[in-house]
Amino acid sequence: TLTRFFAFHFLLPFIITALVMIHLLFLHETGSNNPT
């Protein structure tokens, strides 16, 4: 359980960064495709 906790704690920043980048790309594409 402790090893799993350390693995999760190590991967968490990468997961957050990936989610943020995907979120920004999604907002950028929707904003660019908006005719107004």
UniProtKB/TrEMBL annotation:
Known cofactor(s): heme b
Keyword Mitochondrion: yes
A single cellular component GO annotation: membrane
Lineage: Eukaryota, Metazoa, Chordata, Craniata, Vertebrata
Organism, as annotated: Scotophilus leucogaster (White-bellied yellow bat)
InterPro entries, per database record: Cyt_b/b6_N, Cytb/b6-like_sf, Di-haem_cyt_TM
SUPFAM superfamilies documented for this protein: Transmembrane di-heme cytochromes (SSF81342)
Record-level Gene Ontology MF annotations: electron transfer activity; oxidoreductase activity
Record domain Cytochrome b/b6 N-terminal region profile: where: 1-36
Entry keywords, A to Z: Membrane, Mitochondrion, Transmembrane, Transmembrane helix
Transmembrane segments: 6-27
Protein name from the UniProt record: Cytochrome b
Gene3D superfamilies reported for this sequence: Cytochrome Bc1 Complex, Chain C
GO biological process: respiratory electron transport chain
Annotated Pfam families: Cytochrome_B
